[in-house]
Amino acid sequence: LSGGGSVLTQTHDNNSNVNSWHAGTFAGGISGGTTGNPPPVSGQAVEFDLGTNYDLTGAHIWNFNGAGFTGRGIKDVQILVSSSTGGAFTALTTTQFTQATGGASLVAQVLPFTGATNVRRVRFAIQSAWSGAANEYVGLSEVRFQGTAVPLSNNADLAALTTTAGALTPAFVAATISYNANVPNATTSITVTPTVAQANAAVKVNTVTVASGAVSGNIALNVGTNTITTVVTAQDGTTTKTYTLTVTRAAAAIPPSGNVLTPSVITTSQWTVGSDGSKDQMVNSFGLSGSGSDETKLHDAQANAGSMWHAGPFAGGIAGGTTGTPPSVASQAIEFDLGANYNLTGAHVWNLNQPGALGRGVRGVEIFISPDASGATWTSVGTQEFTQGTGLPLAAQAVSFTGSNARRVRFAIQSAWSGFTNDYVGLSEVRFRGSFAPVSVAGTNLGAIPDNNPTGRDILFNVAGAPGVVKTVSTQFTFNPAHAWMSDLRIQLISPNGTSAWIYVPSAGLSSDLLGPYTIADTATASLQTASTGLAAGATLASGTYRAANGATLVSLNLTFAGTSPNGTWKLRFADVVAPDTTSVSQASLTLTTVNPGKPTLTYQANGSKVFNLTAADSNASYLLQGSDNLSTWIPLQTFTTSGTGAASLTDTTARGPRYFYRAVPVVTPGL
């Protein structure tokens, strides 16, 4: 350029070798252009970064002015603009540049723009050269733009923030800067994807620059809370905004313990009738292979899901499910009847393992329990994420949760791994873990204790449907009014089979009073008599927990009743054997815990030894092997612990009489 005044009025020379640009044999950084000698005209482009944003009014163009080579000048061109350094271009106009003269003093072509607001970059997408050749060293001599600078934006908002940790709480809005998310222990890292609201803003995640709308690098998670910061810096370079995401990674689950429980009845919202999709496949072991307890086995991967359950077009018995082909995922539920009440520690779950359809597996689920056989009331014990199947022999996922006194369990399905709203969501197999829930029964036949009458009053506890055999026993009672001269009383607990244990028989005259409530259990150390010794006449023994005793000798309720049937009518007998003090029993209860007695068998060896085998007992539980030659007196032989499958095998090499009996009873803590 030469001449005085504004650059816009200056003229350009015709030296094509050094003072102009033209396409050539080297790549220049814009994709789509093709090199060559000469290169193709179509596909060539020139981009200009204005350094900041402008509202453009136009441009001055000095086309290629090499003497004798003006055919290389750009003819047809599309002009595009972008508001950021890395954002997309939008078309502004398509126009034609004037062919240069080739003279020594080329005047600029004035090209007005309309609608070119907030422009950071301008692109000339070249369509043809004045030579008309398809391949040409197309070029330009000089370019200048005119416009007014746009004030730098102070917008430091995000337009969106997503993460592989799942849904944010609360849902994202630009004005909210603090969020939370929860992930299972198996999730060791996540990514974050921030999208800025203003295209020229910059963003960093944990101090590392991330392009708007791009995925951050993996962010490692510790167990517990993890703070992730996303800092947005506005175009003005000074305004910032920090968004904080707190991700809580769950602690490693404690594997479920207790017995392996197989539900007896399954109910679903929807199911498929036929060889595949049956709800009963979740509990019938079809598809499991391997030795040992069920939870250690692998599940197959049948192509037609013949060994699995999935939702289908038929109603399965739980209200609220929506049928369809496929049905709604979030309306599906499964209920398991355990057949008795248990204290649950968790479950083992084999997700749907159908090759090519692993997305049908349950992902999000909320677990509910009910103490009722009918499922009248439900309590949530939390949400879980089931691991997706593999399409190969599948090991069970251990899922830990606490559910007390559960008769029924409900899986309320929230999502499938496919992410679809409607899908044939399903599971392969389910087993629960836990132990029998305690049985607590309120007493009946409450009332006055006959005075000076050894027959007394029997408080009755009717126990029905309790599983297993007795492991521990405790009872509680209250008098109203207080009974004066407690040494007048005798208290005895009698089981349905007639086994009895003294709770209180005084061995010394005691003039203090009894009121209660008093709990009698092996966990205590002092008996009613011991605790009352030294109390003044008319003083009342404090309520609390005490040991059963016959005089000064402590009695173990657990040892007395362990291994007996819990079902039937228990009696708590109160006798007042001395006149004239009287009282009434106003409240009484009986609490039992039970264990699985197992199934015993006996085999004989050639050498005379006998092998006692126990199966289907409590898993990893302590039992005592006892022997008897008369079924009346039992002697302890050996304590043992069952395996995880509730089995054990013991050999007795001692010579016994011609008739000898064996039994296994749960080991209890007598507190003696």
Protein described:
With 672 residues, this protein is mostly beta strands. The strands form 13 sheets. Strands 18, 19, 23, 25, 26, 27, 29 and 30 form an eight-stranded antiparallel beta sheet that branches. Helix 1 (528-532) links the parallel strand 37 and strand 38. The protein is elongated. The mean pLDDT is 90.
Percent of residues in helices comes to: under 10%
How many beta strands in the DSSP annotation?
A: 48
Q: Structural class from helices and strands?
A: mainly beta
Low-confidence stretches: none
What portion of the residues fall into strands of 2 or more residues?
over 45%
Question: Mean pLDDT, rounded to whole units?
Answer: 90
Span of the ends, CA to CA: 110 Å
Largest sheet: 8 strands, antiparallel
Tally the helices: 2
Overall geometry:
elongated
Backbone CA Rg:
43 Å
